[in-house]
Write a structure and sequence with these properties.
The protein is mostly helical. It is built from 16 helices and no strands.
Length: 322
Protein backbone atom coordinates (compact mmCIF):
# COMPACT_ATOMS: atom_id res chain seq x y z
CA UNK A 1 0.00 0.00 0.00
CA UNK A 2 2.89 2.38 0.75
CA UNK A 3 4.30 1.69 -2.70
CA UNK A 4 0.95 2.55 -4.30
CA UNK A 5 0.83 5.81 -2.36
CA UNK A 6 4.43 6.54 -3.37
CA UNK A 7 3.62 6.26 -7.08
CA UNK A 8 0.35 8.22 -6.61
CA UNK A 9 -1.86 5.43 -7.90
CA UNK A 10 -4.92 7.69 -8.03
CA UNK A 11 -3.10 10.12 -10.33
CA UNK A 12 -1.87 7.20 -12.44
CA UNK A 13 -5.46 6.02 -12.82
CA UNK A 14 -6.33 9.52 -14.07
CA UNK A 15 -3.50 9.34 -16.63
CA UNK A 16 -4.63 5.87 -17.71
CA UNK A 17 -8.23 7.05 -18.03
CA UNK A 18 -7.05 9.95 -20.20
CA UNK A 19 -5.19 7.61 -22.56
CA UNK A 20 -8.02 5.07 -22.75
CA UNK A 21 -10.67 7.69 -23.49
CA UNK A 22 -8.44 9.52 -25.97
CA UNK A 23 -8.00 6.30 -27.94
CA UNK A 24 -11.28 4.45 -27.58
CA UNK A 25 -13.72 7.34 -27.20
CA UNK A 26 -12.20 10.35 -28.93
CA UNK A 27 -9.98 9.06 -31.73
CA UNK A 28 -12.06 6.02 -32.68
CA UNK A 29 -15.34 7.93 -32.76
CA UNK A 30 -13.99 10.79 -34.90
CA UNK A 31 -11.92 8.68 -37.30
CA UNK A 32 -14.47 5.93 -37.83
CA UNK A 33 -17.84 7.64 -37.39
CA UNK A 34 -18.42 7.96 -41.14
CA UNK A 35 -16.88 4.68 -42.27
CA UNK A 36 -18.69 1.49 -43.17
CA UNK A 37 -18.10 -1.64 -41.13
CA UNK A 38 -16.05 -3.08 -44.00
CA UNK A 39 -13.68 -0.11 -44.09
CA UNK A 40 -13.54 0.00 -40.28
CA UNK A 41 -12.37 -3.62 -40.23
CA UNK A 42 -9.90 -3.02 -43.07
CA UNK A 43 -8.36 -0.08 -41.23
CA UNK A 44 -7.89 -2.04 -38.03
CA UNK A 45 -6.31 -5.01 -39.78
CA UNK A 46 -4.20 -3.13 -42.35
CA UNK A 47 -2.94 -0.11 -40.48
CA UNK A 48 -0.15 0.01 -37.97
CA UNK A 49 -0.76 3.53 -36.82
CA UNK A 50 -4.36 4.62 -37.17
CA UNK A 51 -5.14 2.87 -33.90
CA UNK A 52 -2.65 0.84 -31.95
CA UNK A 53 -3.73 -2.75 -31.58
CA UNK A 54 -5.04 -3.61 -28.15
CA UNK A 55 -1.75 -5.27 -27.20
CA UNK A 56 0.36 -2.35 -28.42
CA UNK A 57 -1.91 0.10 -26.63
CA UNK A 58 -1.44 -1.84 -23.40
CA UNK A 59 2.33 -1.58 -23.92
CA UNK A 60 2.00 2.13 -24.69
CA UNK A 61 -0.03 2.74 -21.53
CA UNK A 62 2.36 0.63 -19.46
CA UNK A 63 5.31 2.70 -20.67
CA UNK A 64 3.64 6.04 -19.89
CA UNK A 65 2.50 4.86 -16.45
CA UNK A 66 5.97 3.55 -15.55
CA UNK A 67 7.62 6.82 -16.52
CA UNK A 68 4.98 8.81 -14.65
CA UNK A 69 5.39 6.61 -11.55
CA UNK A 70 9.13 7.16 -11.75
CA UNK A 71 8.50 10.90 -11.84
CA UNK A 72 6.48 10.74 -8.63
CA UNK A 73 9.15 8.63 -6.92
CA UNK A 74 12.04 10.96 -7.82
CA UNK A 75 9.94 13.93 -6.74
CA UNK A 76 9.41 12.39 -3.30
CA UNK A 77 13.11 11.50 -3.02
CA UNK A 78 14.11 15.14 -3.42
CA UNK A 79 11.16 16.39 -1.33
CA UNK A 80 11.76 14.37 1.84
CA UNK A 81 12.66 17.37 4.00
CA UNK A 82 9.87 19.61 2.75
CA UNK A 83 7.30 16.81 3.06
CA UNK A 84 8.24 16.34 6.72
CA UNK A 85 6.96 19.88 7.26
CA UNK A 86 4.12 20.13 4.75
CA UNK A 87 2.57 16.66 5.19
CA UNK A 88 4.36 14.77 8.00
CA UNK A 89 1.69 12.06 8.21
CA UNK A 90 2.04 11.25 4.50
CA UNK A 91 5.82 10.91 4.32
CA UNK A 92 6.79 7.49 2.92
CA UNK A 93 10.49 7.70 2.05
CA UNK A 94 12.78 7.18 5.07
CA UNK A 95 9.82 5.84 7.04
CA UNK A 96 8.25 2.79 5.39
CA UNK A 97 10.48 2.83 2.29
CA UNK A 98 14.20 3.62 2.51
CA UNK A 99 15.76 6.20 0.22
CA UNK A 100 18.00 3.51 -1.30
CA UNK A 101 14.99 1.36 -2.15
CA UNK A 102 13.21 4.41 -3.55
CA UNK A 103 16.15 5.08 -5.89
CA UNK A 104 16.03 1.45 -7.06
CA UNK A 105 12.29 1.75 -7.73
CA UNK A 106 12.89 4.99 -9.62
CA UNK A 107 15.53 3.49 -11.89
CA UNK A 108 13.48 0.33 -12.40
CA UNK A 109 10.23 2.08 -13.39
CA UNK A 110 11.94 4.72 -15.55
CA UNK A 111 14.17 2.27 -17.44
CA UNK A 112 11.28 -0.18 -17.89
CA UNK A 113 9.09 2.62 -19.23
CA UNK A 114 11.85 3.86 -21.54
CA UNK A 115 12.60 0.41 -22.98
CA UNK A 116 8.90 -0.26 -23.53
CA UNK A 117 8.51 3.10 -25.27
CA UNK A 118 11.54 2.52 -27.51
CA UNK A 119 10.29 -0.96 -28.45
CA UNK A 120 6.85 0.46 -29.25
CA UNK A 121 8.32 3.27 -31.35
CA UNK A 122 10.37 0.89 -33.47
CA UNK A 123 7.54 -1.64 -33.74
CA UNK A 124 5.17 0.99 -35.13
CA UNK A 125 7.93 2.40 -37.39
CA UNK A 126 7.95 5.70 -35.50
CA UNK A 127 11.58 5.53 -34.36
CA UNK A 128 11.93 9.23 -33.54
CA UNK A 129 9.05 8.98 -31.06
CA UNK A 130 11.50 7.28 -28.71
CA UNK A 131 12.71 10.76 -27.80
CA UNK A 132 9.30 11.54 -26.28
CA UNK A 133 9.89 8.88 -23.64
CA UNK A 134 13.53 9.80 -23.03
CA UNK A 135 12.74 13.52 -22.95
CA UNK A 136 9.92 13.04 -20.46
CA UNK A 137 12.17 11.11 -18.06
CA UNK A 138 14.85 13.81 -18.24
CA UNK A 139 12.27 16.57 -17.82
CA UNK A 140 10.76 14.92 -14.74
CA UNK A 141 14.21 14.50 -13.19
CA UNK A 142 15.17 18.13 -13.86
CA UNK A 143 11.83 19.27 -12.49
CA UNK A 144 12.25 17.34 -9.24
CA UNK A 145 15.92 18.24 -8.78
CA UNK A 146 16.04 21.88 -9.88
CA UNK A 147 13.01 23.41 -11.62
CA UNK A 148 10.45 22.73 -8.89
CA UNK A 149 12.23 25.32 -6.73
CA UNK A 150 12.20 27.98 -9.45
CA UNK A 151 9.63 30.65 -10.17
CA UNK A 152 6.82 29.29 -12.35
CA UNK A 153 9.04 27.32 -14.77
CA UNK A 154 8.56 24.06 -12.87
CA UNK A 155 4.80 24.60 -12.66
CA UNK A 156 4.59 25.18 -16.40
CA UNK A 157 6.81 22.21 -17.27
CA UNK A 158 4.85 19.62 -15.32
CA UNK A 159 1.57 21.05 -16.70
CA UNK A 160 2.80 20.76 -20.29
CA UNK A 161 3.90 17.18 -19.63
CA UNK A 162 0.36 16.34 -18.54
CA UNK A 163 -1.00 17.88 -21.73
CA UNK A 164 1.43 15.68 -23.67
CA UNK A 165 -0.51 12.60 -22.51
CA UNK A 166 -3.30 13.51 -24.92
CA UNK A 167 -0.90 14.61 -27.65
CA UNK A 168 1.31 11.52 -27.60
CA UNK A 169 -1.73 9.22 -27.57
CA UNK A 170 -2.95 10.97 -30.71
CA UNK A 171 0.35 10.91 -32.61
CA UNK A 172 0.80 7.20 -31.92
CA UNK A 173 -2.47 6.78 -33.79
CA UNK A 174 -1.38 8.66 -36.90
CA UNK A 175 -2.17 7.18 -40.33
CA UNK A 176 0.31 4.60 -41.57
CA UNK A 177 -1.18 2.45 -44.29
CA UNK A 178 -0.37 0.25 -47.25
CA UNK A 179 -3.30 1.47 -49.34
CA UNK A 180 -2.70 4.96 -50.68
CA UNK A 181 -6.36 5.75 -51.46
CA UNK A 182 -7.54 4.80 -48.02
CA UNK A 183 -4.56 6.59 -46.52
CA UNK A 184 -5.60 9.79 -48.25
CA UNK A 185 -9.11 9.43 -46.88
CA UNK A 186 -7.90 8.95 -43.33
CA UNK A 187 -5.35 11.77 -43.49
CA UNK A 188 -8.13 14.10 -44.58
CA UNK A 189 -10.19 13.09 -41.58
CA UNK A 190 -7.23 13.17 -39.20
CA UNK A 191 -6.30 16.70 -40.22
CA UNK A 192 -9.83 18.02 -40.26
CA UNK A 193 -10.50 21.24 -38.42
CA UNK A 194 -12.95 19.45 -36.14
CA UNK A 195 -10.43 16.89 -34.95
CA UNK A 196 -7.64 19.43 -34.46
CA UNK A 197 -9.99 21.70 -32.54
CA UNK A 198 -11.07 18.90 -30.21
CA UNK A 199 -7.51 17.67 -29.64
CA UNK A 200 -6.20 21.17 -28.90
CA UNK A 201 -9.16 21.79 -26.59
CA UNK A 202 -8.29 18.84 -24.37
CA UNK A 203 -4.58 19.65 -24.39
CA UNK A 204 -5.16 23.29 -23.40
CA UNK A 205 -7.70 22.22 -20.78
CA UNK A 206 -5.22 19.75 -19.28
CA UNK A 207 -2.38 22.26 -19.22
CA UNK A 208 -4.40 25.10 -17.69
CA UNK A 209 -6.17 23.03 -15.01
CA UNK A 210 -2.92 21.42 -13.93
CA UNK A 211 -1.07 24.76 -13.95
CA UNK A 212 -3.70 26.26 -11.65
CA UNK A 213 -3.50 23.25 -9.36
CA UNK A 214 0.31 23.41 -9.24
CA UNK A 215 0.17 27.04 -8.08
CA UNK A 216 -2.39 26.10 -5.42
CA UNK A 217 -0.15 23.26 -4.23
CA UNK A 218 2.79 25.68 -3.97
CA UNK A 219 0.67 27.88 -1.73
CA UNK A 220 -0.16 24.82 0.40
CA UNK A 221 3.50 23.84 0.68
CA UNK A 222 4.96 27.27 1.36
CA UNK A 223 6.28 26.38 4.85
CA UNK A 224 8.35 23.41 3.65
CA UNK A 225 9.54 25.28 0.56
CA UNK A 226 10.78 28.11 2.76
CA UNK A 227 13.05 25.67 4.58
CA UNK A 228 14.82 24.63 1.38
CA UNK A 229 14.92 28.25 0.15
CA UNK A 230 12.84 27.56 -2.94
CA UNK A 231 11.86 30.45 -5.20
CA UNK A 232 8.25 29.52 -5.78
CA UNK A 233 5.52 32.02 -6.60
CA UNK A 234 4.00 32.27 -3.07
CA UNK A 235 7.44 32.60 -1.46
CA UNK A 236 8.54 35.46 -3.71
CA UNK A 237 5.22 37.31 -3.90
CA UNK A 238 3.21 36.04 -0.94
CA UNK A 239 0.23 33.71 -0.67
CA UNK A 240 -2.36 36.36 -1.50
CA UNK A 241 -0.67 37.49 -4.69
CA UNK A 242 0.03 33.89 -5.72
CA UNK A 243 -3.64 33.08 -5.26
CA UNK A 244 -4.48 36.02 -7.53
CA UNK A 245 -2.15 34.57 -10.18
CA UNK A 246 -4.04 31.28 -9.87
CA UNK A 247 -7.27 33.28 -10.19
CA UNK A 248 -5.91 34.95 -13.35
CA UNK A 249 -5.24 31.59 -15.00
CA UNK A 250 -8.65 30.40 -13.82
CA UNK A 251 -10.17 33.38 -15.63
CA UNK A 252 -8.25 32.40 -18.78
CA UNK A 253 -9.62 28.86 -18.41
CA UNK A 254 -13.11 30.29 -17.95
CA UNK A 255 -12.88 32.35 -21.15
CA UNK A 256 -11.47 29.33 -22.98
CA UNK A 257 -14.37 27.14 -21.81
CA UNK A 258 -16.90 29.78 -22.84
CA UNK A 259 -15.40 29.86 -26.34
CA UNK A 260 -15.49 26.06 -26.54
CA UNK A 261 -19.05 25.85 -25.23
CA UNK A 262 -20.18 28.54 -27.65
CA UNK A 263 -18.91 26.35 -30.50
CA UNK A 264 -21.07 23.52 -29.14
CA UNK A 265 -24.28 25.53 -29.30
CA UNK A 266 -25.91 22.85 -31.47
CA UNK A 267 -24.41 19.93 -29.53
CA UNK A 268 -26.97 19.90 -26.73
CA UNK A 269 -25.61 16.97 -24.74
CA UNK A 270 -22.01 18.20 -24.83
CA UNK A 271 -23.12 21.75 -24.10
CA UNK A 272 -25.21 20.73 -21.09
CA UNK A 273 -22.45 18.49 -19.75
CA UNK A 274 -19.86 21.24 -20.17
CA UNK A 275 -21.96 23.80 -18.32
CA UNK A 276 -22.93 21.50 -15.43
CA UNK A 277 -19.67 19.65 -14.87
CA UNK A 278 -16.91 22.07 -15.90
CA UNK A 279 -18.17 25.64 -16.16
CA UNK A 280 -20.23 25.84 -12.96
CA UNK A 281 -17.65 23.98 -10.82
CA UNK A 282 -14.97 26.33 -12.18
CA UNK A 283 -17.04 29.38 -11.22
CA UNK A 284 -17.45 27.95 -7.73
CA UNK A 285 -13.69 27.27 -7.62
CA UNK A 286 -12.94 30.87 -8.55
CA UNK A 287 -15.35 32.18 -5.92
CA UNK A 288 -13.71 30.09 -3.18
CA UNK A 289 -10.21 30.93 -4.44
CA UNK A 290 -10.81 34.67 -4.15
CA UNK A 291 -11.52 34.40 -0.43
CA UNK A 292 -9.26 31.48 0.56
CA UNK A 293 -6.45 32.07 3.04
CA UNK A 294 -5.78 28.93 5.09
CA UNK A 295 -3.88 25.78 4.11
CA UNK A 296 -7.09 23.76 4.59
CA UNK A 297 -8.98 25.98 2.13
CA UNK A 298 -6.24 25.71 -0.50
CA UNK A 299 -6.15 21.94 0.01
CA UNK A 300 -9.89 21.85 -0.73
CA UNK A 301 -9.34 23.92 -3.88
CA UNK A 302 -6.60 21.55 -5.05
CA UNK A 303 -8.97 18.60 -4.74
CA UNK A 304 -11.79 20.53 -6.40
CA UNK A 305 -9.59 21.32 -9.40
CA UNK A 306 -8.73 17.62 -9.66
CA UNK A 307 -12.47 16.87 -9.84
CA UNK A 308 -12.89 19.47 -12.60
CA UNK A 309 -10.02 17.84 -14.49
CA UNK A 310 -11.69 14.44 -14.12
CA UNK A 311 -15.05 15.65 -15.42
CA UNK A 312 -13.33 17.37 -18.32
CA UNK A 313 -11.59 14.16 -19.38
CA UNK A 314 -14.78 12.10 -18.91
CA UNK A 315 -16.50 14.31 -21.48
CA UNK A 316 -14.65 12.33 -24.16
CA UNK A 317 -17.18 9.54 -23.57
CA UNK A 318 -19.87 11.72 -25.08
CA UNK A 319 -18.13 11.63 -28.47
CA UNK A 320 -18.44 7.85 -28.43
CA UNK A 321 -22.13 7.99 -27.53
CA UNK A 322 -23.05 10.43 -30.30
Amino acid sequence: MDFLRLIRYKNLLMVLLTMVLTKYALIDSIFFSNLSFKNYTLIHTTYLGITLTHCLFILFSFSILCITAGGYIINDIFDVETDKINKPLKVIIEKSISKKKAWILYYFTSILGLLSGIYLSFTTENNLYSFFFLGTILALFLYSKYLKKTLFIGNLLVSVLLGLVVFITVIFNEPKAHNSNLLELIINMATSIRFLFIMITYIVFSVLTNLIREIIKDIEDINGDLKIKANTLPILFGRKRASKVAFFFSAILLVFLLIVLQSLINEYVLLTYGILFTLLPLLYFMYKLWFSESKKEFSFLSNLMKVIMLFGILSMILFKLK
